[in-house]
Design brief:
Shape: elongated
GO molecular function: ATP binding; corrinoid adenosyltransferase activity
Distance between the termini: 57 Å
CATH topology: Hypothetical Protein Ta1238, Chain: A
Strand order of the largest sheet: 1-2
Main location: cytoplasm
Strand content: 5-15%
Pfam family, one: Cob_adeno_trans
Number of domains: 1
InterPro entries: CblAdoTrfase-like (IPR016030), CblAdoTrfase-like_sf (IPR036451), PduO-typ (IPR029499)
Order of helices and strands: EEHHHEHHE
CATH superfamily: Cobalamin adenosyltransferase-like
Keywords: ATP-binding, Cobalamin biosynthesis, Cytoplasm, Nucleotide-binding, Transferase
Length: about 200
């Protein structure tokens, strides 16, 4: 378990930070940007959890989001450590996101989506406060995905990291529809409405 005794170390005062393997890189390195945006996604989901108290299925939604927040710390740790896990030390393997975590997202997506009203148009972010915040989480996770994919084109990473973050945005989408009365409260795009 991690134990933090000092919050500031001054080691980053010159614009560098340490990765999981101890290597120091610039704080604007694509890897740092990728796991930083995963952290931002986590924070946005934290706000969504506050709004979940308004929903009749609060406990179930909050439990899903809590699991996802924990997964996002795992994903950040994975991205913080270069490599894809194949060359990790057997004595001290890096924490990596797993297929099981992605599969859990898929199972939840399928279960939620089964009860939603069919879509007849694209959905505009909005409806309930919870749905709107889940749409923010969806878009931030998509930005994290773009950065992770960019990183994967430059360096070797755990391929499950890309799969997980891709599924996460889908999860946020179906959960936002669930938060909008099973999709009945969705705000639908009306093409050309304001011409």
């Amino acid at each position: 378990m991690v134990q933090l005794t000092r919050i500031y170390t001054k080691s980053g005062d010159k614009g560098k930070t340490a990765l999981g393997n101890g290597k120091r890189v610039a704080k604007n390195h694509i890897r740092v940007d990728a796991y930083g945006t995963v952290d931002e996604t986590n924070a946005v989901i934290g706000v969504a959890r506050l709004h979940s108290a308004e929903h009749g299925d609060h406990e179930n939604i909050d439990a899903m989001l809590a699991r996802i927040q924990n997964d996002l710390f795992d994903l950040g740790a994975d991205l913080c450590t270069p490599g894809d896990g194949t060359d990790d030390s057997p004595d001290q393997p890096a924490l990596r996101i797993t297929a099981r975590q992605t599969e859990r997202l898929e199972q939840e997506i399928d279960a939620i989506n089964a009860g939603l009203a069919p879509l007849k148009s694209f959905v505009l972010p909005g409806g309930s406060a919870l749905a709107a915040q889940l749409h923010v989480a969806r878009t931030v996770s998509r930005r994290a995905e773009r950065l992770i994919v960019e990183l994967s084109e430059m360096e070797t990473i755990n391929p499950e990291a890309v799969r997980y973050i891709n599924r996460l945005s889908d999860h946020m989408f179906v959960l936002s529809r669930y938060a909008n009365n099973g999709g009945k409260g969705d705000v639908l795009w009306q093409p050309g409405l304001t011409r």
